[in-house]
Design goal:
By secondary structure, the protein is α+β, with helices and mostly antiparallel strands. The chain is 25% helix and 27% strand. The chain contains 6 helices and 15 strands. The strands form 4 sheets. Strands 1-12-4-14-3-2 form a 6-stranded antiparallel sheet, with helices on one face. The longest helix has 15 residues.
């Protein structure tokens, strides 16, 4: 099979299954960048996160800096969240540290018709000032401080239409803190109800890492979660993100920035 045909197959798998996994690849940063770059322009630098030296497009996901043990969609607090993300194992703990990915497209289909009608009309305010746990370490606090140094807020339709497949999905995650026009208290029960469909066990893939593994997931219709069950052991993954476009709802209306502190 030619390289273009093989890539076309991988791209189709991404659209159909949201998160293709690849065992025992043992690739370099440069090869990971080249692979991710086949899907679209690469994100040059995360707004807050530390990157690998001399490689601003590669983020070192280090358990000593941050443990993202909450469901979220990558940089959904901006008007143009990532299209997708590749992860590659670098340092693994002797146990634990799995990555989970949840399917918002299937979750939307599982909603009762009455709930879908309500969700279709809702907007959610996403902010980086949310879901940032404290590790109680100097490095963890430094990472947390950097992540919260600037406030980002973006407003997205709760139901997003996938730009390639045309399928609707629930577009929420931990950065979605409230619904537009509602208070936090009014918003939380509705968000929690919708999120409960996304996180149903049958809608979640759980990956146990081996050295050299690579995965890519579609950030446009999924949420992900890093399981924090490896104690004080080291866990490191290298992440490369693919630049996304402005999300659009079923009515064709686009996301927009609400606030950005400079």
């Amino acid at each position: 099979m030619s390289f273009p045909a093989r890539f076309s197959q991988v791209h189709q798998e991404l659209l159909e299954h949201e998160v293709p996994f690849f065992r025992d690849q043992k690739i370099t940063d440069e090869e990971q960048l080249a692979f991710a770059g086949r899907f679209g322009p690469l994100t040059q630098k995360h707004p807050m996160m530390r990157t690998v030296e001399d490689k601003p497009q590669v983020i070192a996901v280090d358990g000593e800096d941050q443990r993202a043990d909450h469901w979220y969609t990558d940089i959904s607090f901006t008007p143009t969240p990532s299209m997708g993300m590749t992860l590659r194992s670098v340092v693994l703990p002797p146990y634990g540290g799995d990555t989970m990915v949840a399917n918002g497209e299937v979750a939307y289909k599982q909603l009762p018709a009455e709930q879908r009608e309500i969700a279709d009309r809702l907007w959610a305010v996403h902010t980086n000032h949310a879901e940032q746990p404290r590790l109680g370490t100097a490095r963890g606090e430094a990472t947390r401080k950097a992540f919260l140094a600037r406030r980002f807020e973006a407003v997205h339709r709760v139901v997003r239409v996938h730009p390639e497949s045309g399928e609707p999905s629930l577009f929420l995650g931990g950065f979605a803190q409230r619904l537009a026009g509602m208070t936090l208290r009014e918003s939380r029960p509705i968000i929690d109800l919708l999120q409960s469909y996304v996180h149903r066990p049958e809608n979640v893939a759980r990956w146990t890492w081996r050295q050299g593994d690579v995965l890519i997931f579609d950030n446009r219709n999924t949420q992900h979660f890093a399981v924090d069950d490896y104690g004080s052991h080291k866990r490191g993954l290298n992440r490369v993100s693919i630049t996304g476009h402005t999300p659009v709802g079923l009515d064709g209306r686009s996301s927009y920035a609400l606030e950005e502190d400079r």
